[in-house]
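Internal tracking record. Fields below are filled automatically when a chain is submitted to the structure queue. Please do not edit lines marked as system-generated. If the sequence contains nonstandard residues, flag them in the REMARKS field before resubmitting.
Queue: standard
Priority: normal
Entity type: single polypeptide chain
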Amino acid sequence: MSKTEKTTKDLYEKLEEIRKLLSTQVSLFRLVNEKQIESARKEILELGVRKKIFDLCDNKKTVTQITQEVYPGELLEKSQPKVSYHLAILEDFGLVAHRDEKGQRYYYKSRE
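SYSTEM-GENERATED OUTPUT FOLLOWS
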């Protein structure tokens, strides 16, 4: 084996070693962050009204229908902004997503 071939082989071995180390670091980073993210998601759902809103996100109810179930008898003008606020938080944390259809917005659980 020539000196150039040996140098190239050594270089590839070092690069492979670095790749394995980086892969391990990335895996650990994901594991640690996933635990923190899951913990934050659980905290988000600890608020009773938010949990109720989350449970109603079934891709069949409009925001108006969810609002009427969460705040029955309350004026829509007052209660819908509250529900929209909680839905935005749930969406920011990746717990729900939405689809728009014929001027209505439907929310659904993006993960359980």
